[in-house]
Amino acid sequence: MSDNPSSPLLGAKDSDRPSSQRSQNSTAARNSNQSEHANEASPLLGTHDHYNGYGDAPEQEEASSAAASSLRSLQNSNSGKKRSWRWPSIIAWIILSLILVVILGLGFAIPAVAEQYAKEATVFEPTSLSIDSFTSTGVLARIQGDFRLDGSKVHKKAVRDLGRLGTWIARAVQSKESHVEVYLPEYDDLLLGTATVPPVTVNIRDGVTTHVDLLADLAAGDLDGLRHLANDWIAGRIGQLSVRGVAKVPLKSGIFRLGTQSLSQTIVFQGDEVPAIPQYKIERLNFHEAGPKDSRSGMAADVSAIITNDYPIHFDVPPLGFNILVPACEPDQPRISLADAVTKDIHIRAKEDVRVEVVGFLRDLPDSLTSACPEIQKSPLDILVGGYVSGAATTVYVQGSDSPAKDTPQWVAEFMRSIVLPVDFQGKSFDNLIRNFSLADVNFALPNPFSGPDSPDSKPRVSAIVKALVALPEEMNFDIDIPHVRASSEIYYKGKKLGNLDLSKWQKANTQRVEAHDGEAPSLAVSSVVKEAPIDITDEQVFAEVVQAMLFGGKDLQLDVQAAVDVETKTVLGDFVVRDIPAKGKVFVKPLSGDDKNAKFDCQVGSLRILDTTASTIKLSANVNITNPTNYSATVPYANIKLFSNGSELGSAWAQNISVKPGKNYNIPVESLWDPVGPQGVAQGRELLSQYTSGLDTNLTLKTHKGTIPTQPMLGLALSNFSIDLPTPALQTPRNPSKPDDDRDPRAPSFIDDAIFHIFTSTASFTLLSPLPTTSIFITWINATAYYNHTEPVGGILYDLPWEVPPGVSVSPKLPVDYDLLGVGYGAVKDALGGRLQMDAKADVTIKVGRWEQNLWVLGRHIGASIRL
């Protein structure tokens, strides 16, 4: 090995050295090739201006001792970057450097100078630490390394010169079998361990390297104290650690025996110098059923982990037993035992990553693991599994237990049982665990207007069949069933949140396993019937956009769903709940037009009744037949809409406790109020009624408003931006039993069924069909003109005496007719005497229903009239 200051501080592996330099019996030290003296101007380490805490405190200018230099030499790489201390370096340095300091310090004629020289000049570079075997009290360890004295590291020239001279004269120093004890002052001088070291011979000339290869019997010290130290180290509570070594070394130099000498040396580790827990990575995690399938004896977990090993250590670890613990509800409660685990043989090689294979076994789930914690309503298992599936780091605790290997020393098992090591499993995000989410047989229900504001019934509700494909994680290789599911879902439209779908109640589910295909993992097809799940609309504007797209979009509407799903599972371990599984899906909603693009909304009114009247309003009820062209059903506890014509508000209509299904819906009870708003509304109402009674095509515009759904005023306002135009529903009039249906002209007004004109008396009477089954209509004034061939006047009717039009079929009184005797129309009437003639009519009529009275204009076309003498 070269003594050039730029050479690596750690020597080559022993396996790379010539066979003459390897240890055969590992009981004596051997010398390696010597090299020339190193240059004083090229120190191996940069100097430090503060006291390093090694040995007795020197003066400020002598702070960098040989022990400090030796430690720093182990902390630097070829590039000079600082490294943390390693436990093998500590052990090797304590055992060897103390002995060598004693040898040098007591083997010279000037002990004080020699001791200072030895402390500052000693450089020891460990190359390997391996465990040859375990003993009943400790281990038999093999220590290899390179020792040399570097005089350039000594600060005082006088000490440096005398030291070089003395070591040149002495050449080599030999120790006999010696004993080293290591204590921890911060832990009340806890005995960390003892070492029995075989004879060592080293060349002490400046710059000469001696390769050391020996077997040391290391025995553990106070096990209780070591457990305390280990737990503090695992918990990160060690900010500073002092290690004090005491050695008793029999010495001789040449033929001179120097007796047994004692030396005490202290090393202080601070901050990053305190060794840290090695880094590790979980490489494989696999769950599967254990034991015969019929016995369902439990579940096994196979774990493969890679542990980073930066230490120059080499040994094999026999199989060890562990108990896997998980946190309880409260930190001060005892941890819950989840499983037993056993490691396979572990092979540790110097500075190579270590693979650890672990097999765990879960027989059942204790009640303390599955019972809900107070206040949070989640069990420790919920917290553990929920954190893992959401991608968060999950911590379990590993505690040693009895080793499955019979030849494992008892002290190892006892020590392992007292150590609890936290192990972090990095959770795996299952964002795509639930896929192919869809809704079928959707039924929307409007809020109940009589429910409280915080009641689920005060919100829109949806019933549907929820279908999903649940991908099974590759780690799960066991049978699983999902009898119940529930979720809390957020619904989005074009990236904007629409609202929340509350599926917090457990819903029964049917599960069917789908085997792997096309490179995809196995999955579970889950279907569940959801009944009246509340929808909380959080953005009325987004909801309005959704309704607009459903009404007028003409194509499927895509909604995005993000949910946290709770799944009740049945496994070999029993029944338990996996909570808060993240789920994303897309829901495609068909437009309200349905699959049939030509289907239209149709409405027919029957059983029209007058409930109340005022001078300007009429309250009515009717049974309505509706054709629903969509694929959606709806349940309406209460809804109120406003009626408009040509932009003028004419009244409102409302319904309670109705259900509408796709297709034909019969006899739906609806109430309405005729109440035109303002002079413009009154005028437009008269115009609409005139056109309607004349048989002309008319339309009504329906709009929602703040009171459409009383418990959801913002919902009604959001929908008020959109209106629905539909033809004014046709009224059902009674059938005239004296007249065949095929004798009625479909173009004739539905309220006038027939007429009889009397030439001799100059009168006319009309057969009227009233659409009101229980209320009479009164005609208080009429001014009408009859026409032949649409344009030729026949005569006029002016009558100001009121008469009643009762429900059903009735005949008007004989009304006086002022014939136009010279007109073409009158001639046509005479020519039709004894037969029938089609006529048209124009009239101004005043009608009255209860206290309500209204003047209308009426057009009558294709009125079939019988001409009598």
From TrEMBL:
Its GO CC terms are: fungal-type vacuole membrane
The alphabetical list of record keywords is: Membrane, Transmembrane, Transmembrane helix
Q: Where is the Tag1 C-terminal domain?
A: 476-590
Comp. bias (Polar residues): 20-36
Instruction: Cite the Gene3D superfamilies for this sequence.
Output: 2.60.40.1820
User: What's the short name of a Pfam family annotated to this entry?
Assistant: LEA-2_1
Q: Which residues cross the membrane?
A: 90-114
Which residue intervals define the domain Tag1-like fourth Ig-like in the entry?
605-716
Q: Where is the Tag1-like fifth Ig-like domain?
A: 747-857
Q: Where is this region: Disordered?
A: 1-70
Instruction: Kindly give the PANTHER family that the UniProt entry links to this protein.
Output: CHROMOSOME 16, WHOLE GENOME SHOTGUN SEQUENCE, PRE-RRNA PROCESSING PROTEIN
- Record-given protein name: Pre-rrna processing protein
